[in-house]
Amino acid sequence: MSGRVRRDVRVEGVVEGVGFRPFVYSLAIRLGLAGRVGTDINGVFIEVEGPSADVDDFLAALERDAPRLAEIERVTTVATEPRGAAEFTIVESDVHGFVSPDSATCDDCLRELADPADRRFGYPFINCANCGPRFTSTLTGFDRCEACAAEYQDSAGRRCHAQATCCPDCGPRLRLVDQAGDPVTESAALLRDGKVVAVKGIGGYHLAVLASDEKAVGALRARKHSADKPFAVMVPTVDSARELCEVDDAAGGLLTDRRGPIVVLPRLLDATVAPSVAPGNRHLGLMLPDTPLHHLLLAAVGAPIVLTSGNRSGEPIAHVDTEAFAQLAGIADAFLTHDRPIPVRIEHSVVRKDSVVRRSLGYVPEPITLRWHSPRPILACGAELNGTFCLARERHAFVSQHLGDLANGDAFKSFVDGIEHFQRLHGIIPAVVAHDLHPGYRSTKHAKELTGVELVGVQHHHAHIASCLADNGEPGPVIGVVFDGLDDTGWGGEFLVADLVDFERVGHLVPIPMPGGAAAAKEPWRMAAAYLDEAYDGDPPKGLDVLNRNDSHWHDGHSPDSPVTSSAGGLFDAVSAMLGLRDTINYAGQAAMELEQLADPHERGEYLAVISGNGPLLISGSDLVRAAAEDLLAGVEPSVIAARFHNGVIDVIVRCCAELRDTTEISTVALSGDLFQNVLLRHGVAEGLRGNEFRVLTHSRVPTDDGGISLGQAAVAAARDRR
Ligand code: ZN
Ligand code: ZN
Ligand code: FE
Questions:
Q1: Which 3-state string (H, E, C) describes 645-713?
Q2: What is the whole-number distance in angstroms between the Cα of residue 448 and the centre of ligand 1?
Q3: Which of the ends of the chain has fewer CB neighbours closer than 10 A, N or C?
Q4: Cβ atoms within 10 Å, residue 691
């Protein structure tokens, strides 16, 4: 045969566990080509030979028609001598490459789910090679029936080599604990009746109530001890999402994304959700059903439901049946559960149109590709609140799901178990371990207990900027602006000149006492008192409510021993408390978030903060507090004050960067830290900087809060290892 050629092809990316080998196999068979396909540590390898034109068709189809869950990063092709191979084979291998994340139910499966003639009609665990659980659970303990085994073997079908293939005869079963009747129908009836139902989801138990029922949502809050942290809402369809929020094409795309995220969207004024779903918030977190069970349930309820993590406030999501029954006994009125185990605890991801707020289900354990390699395998242990860890090898970083507050024992156990699981999954044995410098973080302590590894301590705010650099594939140096929440690190309103290896502190907010130390992080009125003291030289005006409300406590906390902090979180807390939003908080970042929600987006006025200092630049946050206090005493609307304060912070960040550009000649700015979850602040600063001809880097692949710290630590450790 003339024109016979052979190609060695290498496909890198997420190609493991997504039906890629069967896809390659059936493609080769269809085109009558010979050769083989297999996986190894670097991805999929293919040897293919046949007539030149057919091999070209094969290569073209390889990327164009790849399975839905495959994320192809790179295809390389080398021409070799034809060997006269006669058939095409799949090489069995057990080497672990990239494991695919879990995926929301695909359209083909939804069609079968709704088709009375299909043998999986109404079956809540339907899935195929293009959708279903991957990372979170396996079907060990269930033996495929004959019909399923045949589908599993059929190279032309949608369930070829799909591990979780099952059906009503051989797969998991749904039940509503201690209740007769159809579990879905009965659960829907309970929900419509205002009851709280615990639902076993893909990565753990959730608690559901009817979203329009204030009494039910209120009861859920009271039982969960969650006062006002926003709840997410699951809507049956994109159309029903449009009745609650502004949903444009981009938002619609995110809602129907196979990752099944919660999408934070501007809520409509006439949205029919109970006030307790997201008190004081101009936004709502919406999601579509992401499993067949949720599709069936939402169709049966016919209305949006609140779907929130199955836990008491502050604890991680329950994922083991016995634990869930014990933990949620006083919260849920009923349990909709099944016998498929969930070995890995994971919560829904949360996204905005331009950023990831919480990177978990659907993303993890997909790698983040780095621009530079790590000479040795790295484990980065992350921070404490919003804990994540990261394993890095070569040019790939595997960032864990959001693990919550590692001060919590269960969360810390997930952290330790998760590291072990990821090491096995990706075949990585770390030689370098990066950690925060904070000695009290459990992640730091864990790192220091490891033996036979090289430890690399990374300063927290440097890790934030390194994370933003890694997120953008940039080496620096940049001007890094880290506006972080209030904690006991002493920093958090920082301007750094940084690259991946090192940093210098070139500016910060003027440090202010934290009256009562750690208590100040939970009681924003304390920072208001401290800032007002500073702004008025110890003699703040008498008419300010925040001081009158807390006068007696203030004297206890007002000691010369108070630690000081330059945290921007403390500044936002102070203004929030002054405006009467709240004196104490129920979850981290709440005061600053409510201040953002209060701000009138149309107000253009701004407060002016003075920049001084001949060393690091010093920014006077108390100037902003004084201006806000004067407006408040003059009777200006709190929403206007909140906006002028935001505009003032934006203005001073931009001016500070401009001064630093004059001295450093660096004109790229990286923004990171908790406070840049604040959209008004992030967009305002980015716009202001771009208007002044800066390049601006923000986070898009990992969160800007401490959830991104582990990636930053890994990037720093790798850069230092390359030197
Ligand atoms: Zn499917
Ligand atoms: Zn079956
Ligand atoms: Fe931080």
A1: HHHHHHHHHHHHHHHHHHHHCCCEEEEECHHHHCHHHHHHHHHHHHHCCCEEECCCCCCCCHHHHHHHH
A2: 44
A3: C
A4: 9
In the chain, the N- to C-terminal Cα span, in Å, equals 53
> Taking the mean position of all CA atoms in its chain, how far away is CA 704?
10
Average pLDDT, rounded, for the chain: 92
Over its C-alpha atoms, the chain yields an Rg (Å, rounded) of 27
- Token pair 């050769």 is at which residue? 35
- The first and second tokens of residue 460, run together, are 């927290």
Cβ atoms of 395 and 401 within 8 Å: the answer is no
Which residues surround the ion ligand 3 when the cut-off is CB under 5 Å? Answer: 484, 706
Distance 364 CA to ligand 3 centre (A): 21
**Strand blocks (E) in 134-217:** 174-176, 197-200, 205-210
Judged by average pLDDT, the poorest of 89-93, 268-272, 535-539 is 89-93
| Ligand closest to CA 460 | 3
Give the position of tokens 């206090």. Answer: 629
Distances (CA, A) of 644 to 282, 427, 594, 628, 651: 18, 52, 15, 8, 10
Q: How many A from CA of 158 to the centre of ligand 2?
A: 15
- pLDDT tens figures, 296-332: 999 999 999 999 999 887 788 888 899 899 999 999 9
Could you say which ligand is closest to the alpha carbon of residue 162? 1
Separation of alpha carbons 328 and 330, rounded Å? 6
pTM more than 0.85: yes
Distinct helix (H) and strand (E) counts, the chain: 23, 28
Give the distance (Å) from ligand 2 centre to CA of residue 156: 18
Mean pLDDT value of segment 560-578: 92
DSSP class of residue 391? E
Quick one: average pLDDT of 385-391? Answer: 96
**Ligand 1 centroid distance, CA of 119 (Å):** 14
pLDDT in tens, 144-191: 999 999 999 887 788 988 889 999 999 999 999 999 999 999 999 999
How many angstroms separate the alpha carbon of residue 85 from the centre of ligand 2?
A: 36
Q: If you measure from the C-alpha of residue 588 to the centroid of ligand 3, how many angstroms do you get, rounded to a whole number?
A: 12
Residue 113: nearest ligand to its CA? 1
> Rounded to whole angstroms, how far apart are CA atoms 629 and 621?
13
- 8 Å CB contact between 628 and 577: no
Whose CA is closest to 90, among 47, 151, 49? 47
Examine the pLDDT at 687 and tell me if it is beyond 70.
Answer: yes
Average pLDDT over residues 647-662: 98
Interatomic CA distance for residues 612 and 656, integer angstroms: 10
Q: Tokens 């406070």 — which residue?
A: 675
What whole-number distance in Å separates Cα of residue 384 and Cα of residue 264? 24
Q: Which ligand is nearest to the CA of 111?
A: 1
Residues with CB under 5 A from ligand 1 (ion): 106, 109, 128, 130-131
Q: Are 113 and 130 in contact (CB under 8 A)?
A: no
Burial of 591 (0-12, 13-18, 19+ CB in 10 A): buried
Ligand closest to 18 (CA) is 1
Angle in degrees, CA 438, 440, 443, rounded to 5:
80
Q: What is the pLDDT of residue 690?
A: 98
Tokens standing for residue 215: 């009494």
Question: Measured in angstroms, how far is the CA atom of residue 325 from the centroid of ligand 1?
Answer: 30
Whole-number Å distance, alpha carbon 484 to ligand 1 midpoint, is 41
Asked whether the predicted pLDDT for residue 80 surpasses 80, the reply is yes
